[in-house]
Amino acid sequence: MWLVNIVFWLQAFLSPVIVCGLIGFIITSGISVPSLIIGVVAGVITAEYIRRKIGLDSFFGRIYGPNKMDEKWKKKKD
Question: Which of 26, 43, 47, 23 is nearest to 35 (CA)?
Answer without folding.
Answer: 23
